[in-house]
Amino acid sequence: MTGTDSGFPTLTLRHGDVLAVETLDGTMPSLQKPIFQELGLIMPLVRREPDNRLGKGELELDLNGRVIAKIPVADAYGAIGEAVKAHAAELMTAELVEYYLTKLSSTSPRLVAEARQRVGAAAILSFLQGKLREQKSIRGLAGLLEELLGTA
To answer: pTM of this prediction?
Structure first.
């Protein structure tokens, strides 16, 4: 699963110069773990593209074709992390829900089957997006499905 697969969100980091890319070499992989630990969200791969419109030391973060942040290279790590958190719900897609449910079904097959049958994948997606909009973690998916089923 990558951010470039069909149905998965795409993050693109546009940069104005080569120095910006060299500065960011360790930034994206080092953001993946804290984002997952805090929100339970698998961060998509980030594509990097040069952009002549951007000046030296300037970056743009694009989510699915829409600029969500303009960032100076000096603030890249924190600013990219905050932009991803602010748009976490947009990173949760039906395909990612399916991935999470498939993984959970290996340890909790009855719970996943009941959730699929009673509320369906679309309601699960909406529920998880709501949690992410509130900046709440979706890491404990089994507990979240139980919560959802309790209200269904």
So the answer is: 0.83
